[in-house]
Design brief:
Radius of gyration: 12 Å
Helix content: over 70%
Order of helices and strands: HHHH
Shape: globular
Number of domains: 1
Amino acid sequence: MIVILLGILDILAGLSIFSLKLAWGPTLVTFFIIYLLGKSLLSLKSFASIIDICTAILFIIAIFNGVTALTYVGTIWLIQKGIISFF
């Protein structure tokens, strides 16, 4: 059950990057940055956690400098990881 919840949150984190153009977007992305960092720091030995930390850093850069192609790579990573957690 917890894996499905974390998968849903990963999908929402990935989709949150599209809300940056909205007024409340940076706040939502900041929430998911904290979520990704918190979840990743619990299991630092995992390759997926290291990529999650990199994605959180990309999201921080996106808040200040705008979305780049590399940010979309991190978004795709989170969405596919969330979808895989359902299986």
